[in-house]
Design goal:
The complex is a heterodimer of chains A (387) and B (695). With 387 residues, chain A is an alpha+beta fold. Chain A has 13 helices and 9 strands. In chain B, helix 12 (318-327) crosses helix 13 (350-361). In chain B, a hairpin with a 2-residue loop joins strand 16 and strand 17 (337-339). Chain B is built from 20 helices and 30 strands. Classes of the chains: A alpha+beta (387), B alpha+beta (695).
């Protein structure tokens, strides 16, 4: 019996000795690798002191061999020793695991502020963006989109549009000509003629496209630009329909509070003729901007700040409308009877309106672009500003 | 046109403030762009449309103001005693040819001259100097100033000659002789041609008609006898001459737009009156050469009020229509007939009358109405597909470019155009402009590539090394003589540098040929087309061995590849550039391919990946075709896995890995079945291409 007890005592002592490094485990300042090594060590220790070949296992086997009257007490003593050892091991194990888990989380901590991974997205040209927006509006208003040739005969570019020979607009200094004697269309009004010939009347079309004028490029001029032309011919069409239509699409583009202004003007292909303006989308017609609006509406940054620093009055003047409250956009009018006749339409039966405007000028104004030549340089620093 | 507010007040009573006057004029189409103070006066800067030369004078603006305010014009001093007297005694017409002979009446329908003897040339009085100064005119001497003053008042340009400098003291109005020279008032010698109208003395031109007087016959301090010319010239001819000489003057500006042929006598009288008053002298009778009186122009309008309603929707009572028209000088001459004023060249049809009434009734009074519903709107047939194509490219990181349609001639023959576009043989291929505003850029682009390469260059110059651009636009090719050029819409891309990630400073990897090709494939797929074949090709602007063509149903519709060394060197590209250009118009002419559903298989596929060493001349497409042709019943797909070259391999070979997928729709294939088919494919590849699987 005392042999047996001695055996337990020896196992206990041997364990206590081996376990002593773990007894008051202090992981402060330890690294993950150190803790993992300790965990492995602890595992080995556990096998050595609780495994099949351990003194404790030996003691368990001895339970059957001790005298029956002592068996119960011995068994309890073995159990107590086993519990004592296991508890210590589990406690140390738990401590180590906790430390390791924490250390691993720390080691795998990521910087969530690093930009996400996504291929760079490209950008549509500002002219395309604007054209698509305007096309969408007009398609929803029942218009068909049309385009046609960019190199035209004088007939389509001028004669059919009631611009007779000798008219200033026909001067070759304004129009590009090919060596074959054809004109690069100087306005998308050419599409009016081609579309009426093709579709007949009644007709409601919008014609966006490139046009060409012999202007030397500078900040406000380019020899090629884009226009959008609108045409509506039907029985009983009046200038009221022109005004209503122009006002409607501008409202859809710039907001319900947009108002328009029509001023008498002159174009050979319309009679009566009018230029149209709309209330500025930044200052809403007031001509002035508050600081907040300026911050929202203007990308001019440095320039505006510089002016503010100097306390200049200019900072209050609305930029797109130059303080007038109005933005001049395009020309319009009732289709000239000669134009209708060129297309085989009887002006006594049908009437119609047409309007047109330049997209570059509009885009320059909307996006606050200071130099219109940027439109065709294709500088990525420019293009990537538009979405 | 600068208009003096004080001067206006001399012509018509104005109860409006200057600002109200400006607003009222703007409202009727005489756009006042600004009001500038000048001493005790205010100058209105009016932007006039080209159809209103009658308003290039204070009288014309006053007349518009009269319609607005309902007030009559004041009697001007032009009809003062002297004028009446002068008018009353016309020059005996039989004697006229001795002073004035018009040899070109079609270019000069009316010419008046008046001789004033014994004038004293000197400075103008202060009021005249001030008035001209206010309107931006420099004072010269009393007589010259008077001619300018009357032009600004009545709109009629005129010219004063020193009578004694005119050979034989007479005027001949004729076209110039080729090469005839004249030194104009600006002391520039100008050469005339036979199309130009010249005012001549008995020997030589003394003025370029309607444009500028001659230097030698001009008024000087020594002048004592003056011949005052007040004439009407054919508008188109003056415009042409002014353009040819590159000489635009206040006079030519008015003549080419049209002055009032019936206003010459009044203008001459007014000037004469002022000359007599300010320079003294004695006026002779006026010579008026007006062989064919200009016919009266009439406009028919049965019911102007309802015409206004029909075209503008405005309700303007007949009385008010009549008031506006008659105030403008458009008199009703009979039932449904009006007389067009001689100073209005733009009133010819009823619609013109409608505009006059409408602008005075006020465009702001026209209601906003939408036209009655008509039908569904529609995009252009290809627009939806083009939008998808654009969208696909934008997703792939492409920025959309738009370049000028005219390019430099030096690009000729450097770039291959899309097939079946430029004419073959010796015929003219290109469309060329007579001239350009950009040096050298007279060629209408047959390809969009140079535009994009120019843009790449610009971006590289700005340290943007990783650039992907695309453009959709028209290219141009010559057709037969007298035929309109062929226009074709192309889709072109250019890429260089690395694959960029948003917000990350360094590109992930360098771009290569397969990025360009991938973009083309994505674009074509987005456009709803399929069934393209890509094969090696030789393309003028592409590097040999890195060039391909895109083929649809046996027709080449585009090319792609790496820009060749020579062009790259011309553009100073130090990194590879890849381009592709496709005939978008041809591609989109085909309807988009509808999607067709294939039932999902219930049986698993068996995959075999296999690598070969292939010579560089053998393409994946050929290997694939051979594998598919091997007659394997259950081979479903042959796909590309990887290609490897370089390290450990001979230069002339690559290691190609492909994947074979076997599947039956009826049952799960057995290992033996797959092995048998796999084996027959391998032996076919060995027989055809000598390929052995790599272990």
């Amino acid at each position: 019996m005392s042999d047996a007890n001695q055996h337990i005592e020896a196992a206990r002592t041997a364990f206590a000795e081996a376990f002593s490094p773990f007894d008051s485990l202090d992981l402060n300042g330890s690294g993950l690798a150190e803790a993992e090594a300790k965990l492995r060590e602890l595992g080995e220790l556990k096998v050595r002191h609780t495994g099949k070949k351990s003194a404790l296992a030996e003691a368990k086997k001895m339970i059957g061999r001790v005298a029956p009257e002592e068996r119960s007490a011995f068994g309890q003593a073995v159990q107590a020793a086993e519990k004592e050892i296991t508890d210590l091991l589990e406690k140390a194990e738990a401590e180590l695991n906790e430390f390791i888990t924490a250390a691993r989380i720390e080691r795998e901590r990521l910087d969530v502020t690093i930009p996400g991974r996504r291929p760079r997205t490209g950008h549509l040209h500002p002219i395309t963006i604007l054209r698509q927006q305007i096309e969408d509006i007009f398609v929803s208003m029942g218009y068909a989109i049309e385009d046609d040739r960019e190199i035209e005969t004088d007939y389509y570019n001028f004669d059919a549009l009631n611009i007779p020979e000798g008219h200033p607009a026909r001067e070759s200094q304004d129009t590009f000509y090919t060596t074959g004697g054809f004109a690069l269309r100087s306005q998308t009004s050419t599409v009016q003629i081609r579309a009426m010939e093709r579709r007949g009347v009644p007709i409601r079309i919008i014609a966006p496209g490139k046009v060409f004028r012999r202007d030397t490029p500078d900040m406000t001029h380019v020899p090629m630009f884009h226009q959008i032309e609108g045409l509506c011919v039907d029985k009983g069409i009046t200038m009221a329909h022109l005004k209503g239509t122009v006002t409607e699409w501008l409202k859809r583009l710039f907001g319900e509070d947009t108002v328009t202004r029509f001023r008498p003007s002159y174009f050979p292909f319309t009679e009566p003729s009018a230029e149209f303006d709309f209330s500025c989308f930044v200052c809403h017609g007031s001509g002035r901007v508050s600081g907040e609006q300026r911050a929202v509406s203007s990308e001019e940054g440095e320039n505006s700040e510089r002016l503010t620093a100097h306390g200049s009055q200019l900072t209050d003047r609305c930029r797109p409308c130059k303080g007038s409250g109005w933005i001049e956009l395009g020309g319009s009018g009732m289709v000239h009877p000669n134009v209708l006749r060129s297309c085989g339409v009887d002006p006594a039966v049908y009437s119609g309106f047409a309007f047109g405007f330049g997209l570059e000028r509009m885009a320059a104004m909307m996006f606050n672009i200071d130099d219109i030549r940027h439109m065709f340089e294709n500088d990525v620093r420019f293009l990537e500003q538009f979405t | 046109m600068n208009i003096s507010y004080n001067w206006l007040k001399e012509l018509i009573e104005i109860e409006l403030s200057p600002e109200e006057t400006a607003a009222a004029l703007t409202r009727v189409g005489l756009a006042v762009e600004g009001i500038h103070p000048h001493k005790d006066d205010l100058i209105l800067d009016i932007d006039l449309t080209s159809n209103r030369p009658d308003c290039l004078s204070h009288l014309g603006v006053a007349r518009e103001l009269g319609v607005i305010t309902g007030r009559p014009l004041k009697a001007t001093s032009g009809s003062a005693a002297a004028g009446d007297e002068l008018d009353a005694v016309p020059f005996p017409s039989v004697l006229a040819p001795e002073v004035v002979r018009v040899d070109a009446p079609e270019l000069c329908p009316r010419f008046t001259a008046r001789v004033i003897r014994g004038v004293k040339i000197g400075p103008s009085p202060q009021w005249l100097v001030d008035r001209l100064d206010a309107l931006g005119e420099r004072s010269i001497n009393n007589v010259a100033d008077i001619t300018n003053y009357v032009m600004l008042e009545l709109g009629q340009p005129m010219h004063a000659f020193d009578l004694d400098k005119l050979a034989e003291k007479r005027i001949v109005v004729r076209t110039a002789r080729a090469g005839e020279k004249i030194t104009t008032l600006d002391e520039v010698e100008r050469e005339l041609d036979e199309t130009m109208l010249a005012i001549c003395d008995a020997e030589r031109p003394v003025a370029v008609a309607g444009v500028m007087g001659g230097f030698e016959s001009g008024i000087t301090d020594a002048t004592t006898n003056v011949l005052l010319e007040v004439a009407y010239f054919k508008r188109e001819n003056i415009r042409q001459t002014s353009r040819k000489l590159g000489l635009a003057t206040e006079a030519s500006y008015r003549f080419e737009r049209g002055v009032d042929i019936e206003n010459l006598i009044r203008a001459s009288d007014r000037a004469t009156e002022l000359i007599l008053e300010l320079a003294g002298g004695e006026a002779a009778d006026i010579v008026d050469v007006y062989p064919e009186r200009q016919p009266e122009r009439t406009v028919q309008s049965a019911d102007i009020s309802s015409a206004v309603k029909r075209l503008t929707g405005l309700d303007v009572a007949a009385d008010e229509c009549e008031r506006v028209l008659s105030s403008l000088g458009i008199e009703r001459t009979g039932e449904g007939e009006y007389k067009s004023p001689t100073w209005r060249h733009d009133i010819a049809i009823e619609e013109d009358l409608v505009e006059e009434v409408a602008r005075h009734a006020g465009y702001e009074n026209i209601k906003d109405e939408l036209p009655p519903a008509f039908g569904a709107g529609e995009y252009q047939a290809t627009e939806v597909r083009k939008r998808r194509l654009r969208g696909a490219l934008v997703e792939q990181g492409f920025d959309e470019a738009i370049a000028y349609s005219f390019i430099d001639v030096r690009h000729d023959d450097t770039f291959a155009a899309v097939p079946e576009f430029l004419r073959e043989g010796g015929e003219e291929k290109f469309v060329t402009l007579k001239d350009s505003v950009i040096e050298g850029a007279v060629r209408m682009r047959p390809t969009l590539i140079p535009g994009l390469l120019g843009a790449l260059r610009l971006n590289l110059n700005h340290q943007r090394r990783d650039v992907k651009l695309f453009e959709i636009g028209k290219s141009f090719a010559a057709a037969g003589i007298g035929e309109l050029p062929t226009e074709r819409e192309l889709f072109t891309i250019a890429v260089t540098g690395g694959e960029v990630h948003e917000d990350r400073a360094m590109p992930a990897r360098p771009l290569d040929l397969y990025d360009a090709k991938g973009a083309v494939e994505a674009a074509l797929e987005a456009a709803g087309t399929a069934g393209y074949e890509y094969r090696p090709a030789e393309v003028a602007h592409l590097r040999a061995g890195q060039a391909g063509e895109v083929v649809k149903d046996g027709r080449v519709v585009g090319t792609f590849g790496r820009l060749n060394e020579e062009i790259a060197a011309n553009y100073k590209f130090k990194q590879p550039v890849y381009v592709a250009e496709l005939d978008l118009q041809t591609i989109l002419a085909e309807p988009s391919e509808p999607a067709v559903y294939t039932p999902l298989s219930r049986f698993p596929s068996v995959i075999r990946d296999i690598s070969f060493l292939v010579p560089r001349s053998l393409t994946f497409a050929e290997v694939r075709r051979t594998a598919l042709a091997a007659g394997s019943a259950n081979l479903r797909a042959v796909s590309f896995v990887d290609i490897f070259e370089g390290k450990g391999l001979a230069d002339e070979v690559r290691s190609l890995t492909i994947r074979l997928e076997f599947r039956s729709d009826e049952r799960t294939l057995t290992e033996a079945e797959v092995e048998a088919e796999y084996g027959s494919i391998l032996s076919r590849l060995k027989d055809e291409h000598g390929l052995e699987p790599r272990s």
